[in-house]
Design brief:
homodimer, globular, 2 domains, 12 helices, Aspartate Aminotransferase, domain 1
Amino acid sequence: MFQINDNYEKLPGSYLFSTIGKKVASYKEAYPEKDIIRLGIGDVTLPIAPAIVEAMLKAVVEMGTEEGFHGYAPDLGYEFLRSAIVKNDFEARGCNIEVDEIFVSDGAKSDSANIQELFSTNCRIGVCDPVYPVYVDSNVMAGRTGTYNSDTGTWSKVIYMPCVMENDFIPQLPKEVPDMIYLCFPNNPTGTTIPKAELQKWVNYANEKGSVIIYDAAYEAYITEEDVAHSIYECEGARNCAIELRSFSKNAGFTGVRLGYTVVPKDLKCGDVSLNRMWARRHGTKFNGAPYIIQRAGEAVYSQVGKIQLKEQVAYYMNNAGLIKKGLQEAGYTVFGGVNAPYIWLKTPGKMTSWEFFDYLLEEKGIVGTPGAGFGPSGEGYFRLTAFGSLENTVAAINRIKQM
Amino acid sequence: MFQINDNYEKLPGSYLFSTIGKKVASYKEAYPEKDIIRLGIGDVTLPIAPAIVEAMLKAVVEMGTEEGFHGYAPDLGYEFLRSAIVKNDFEARGCNIEVDEIFVSDGAKSDSANIQELFSTNCRIGVCDPVYPVYVDSNVMAGRTGTYNSDTGTWSKVIYMPCVMENDFIPQLPKEVPDMIYLCFPNNPTGTTIPKAELQKWVNYANEKGSVIIYDAAYEAYITEEDVAHSIYECEGARNCAIELRSFSKNAGFTGVRLGYTVVPKDLKCGDVSLNRMWARRHGTKFNGAPYIIQRAGEAVYSQVGKIQLKEQVAYYMNNAGLIKKGLQEAGYTVFGGVNAPYIWLKTPGKMTSWEFFDYLLEEKGIVGTPGAGFGPSGEGYFRLTAFGSLENTVAAINRIKQM
């Protein structure tokens, strides 16, 4: 009789956002007349920018012609996209990253879940707490996390690096050394970040201890402060210890378009073994490239017009972030984030747990947010709101919250 | 110091089609004037059908509007596509498959590589030999295959089911029972298939022994004979033992569009554990849906006009298959396949190995094919040609081969 991967059985409940989706759906069924504003899942709402729509239309038409048809894409992505990435996301920031270190994918979620495959199941992971659930869940599925303690909400083999009010949401270098360190700055869910000098300490730590950093820079487009790195490769020595995950979902609204990429520098090695070659092998064997049409959309993100249009989109969402932050503060909440990220992280009032606050907000105010506890034990007592709604909905939500 | 997944180190060489790509590229560099005809990789050449182009154009325009914008797709695929799949691919054939048993993905290659994650690393796999390399390679990466013997080209823990001239390419039920059985009919690479009654034996065997069948039906659109099953769910009892992988690449030319789906019936269980729920959990955690635009393209595959246009495409390729088969036979080759599949499988002449024949065909005839040995040890002495070229190239290739 075949046996299953019993690591799956260890996962408590369902994926966070599936749980929220179900809760909201059943609430809507019970109260169909209620008007619900969704500031929960980090999904964008603005339509795809005209320059990108135009590029996709052109690519679709091409695909319908004999000369313009494109079959299987190169395993690691089209040269036109990988070059545009290198030029704009790295060269422009003084980072030394080459085209063959860029791996185009169907999105950063897939990459952030799949990247752990390159490492031994004996590796121990370190994560900020709270954290985007995919890092831990994908390692649970691979058997790297030990056993779950439902009282503490922690895994026995995971090294947690708490990010809370008390330490200004800046994780401390862990005493127990993780083999794989997941970092996400600007951070999801807290919306906070760390200065470049602080990030450099992590790079130094990883190089000293022999750890690898898996750096999720999905929100770099929202950085407004000067001293914050947009890429970990702005730090010295990062080519030897860091993999970077990048998304088109938040800077270009590609949540439903699906495109991302991962940087694996050729200097990142375990003994003689190049992780760049390993990831190339994984791509070649387990993936068949992102759609041609979508890669052309990605290219348009870097066009002159595209850049202008996307800057406006980011500004639109950051305006929302400012409104939420100000509104919540006026309503008496303690609020974080929203300066270099589209997320607002608030302290739940009184002794409310974050799921209690979720229910309160849904039932009393008709607003969907994300309970901090869903991102890890140190998220308990916090709550995430996103700035990805429409201006209209954002203003309406804030007004509802203020009417206490 | 972090450690890598050392199973990757066990993989001999690179992914088959990457190797071929490199060989052809270096030949082209040496002889830039040579006109090369590619009948190697199973990539299609006809442009995307008009009905599908139209659907994508419409979806792209929608994505650029406030009302028509689509963000994150439902984890498992849009209802409109899943319903069309159930209705056309299963109900129409009398198979009892429900919408929540369909999991839409970015392509069958990803699914066929990822599906093994649901199973224990102690499971033993059984594969036809020769076979599509992804089944074995993805299991090597997961550590299920033991050690590689480079003399025999076999893995110590893999159960091989040879498919050769001598058994009419019909695999025998293995004495040593595999936990996971990979079957692909119509077969890639041999282009042969088995009657439905023969497939029923495999379903019975799996149910009796407690094995799971991973059934790759990527080429079902090419079936011309009446007694061949298009889906394993045409067999009684398959809901209890079989997962089916389906592709849009070959029936609709989506190699560069990227769309596939996997069927995991709710009756497929290991003890109390539903594999349908496990796969749903994997999708929710490690994947973020296929692009909206591409799922609309998939829907158009099942439209009335789409069906007619795609029937013509399949007929075009099958005409090529007939020409290749006939041409090779006239040139004195022993030839298989090409009746229910777009692949022609030929016996290499004399004592030529399949890689020797690859070099011969590339250097003497300017034709790229795929050496049988690349698909497994029993593929040695065979060679694959695909019918996915243009009619013009196919005719030219046959003429070149005939000029011996």
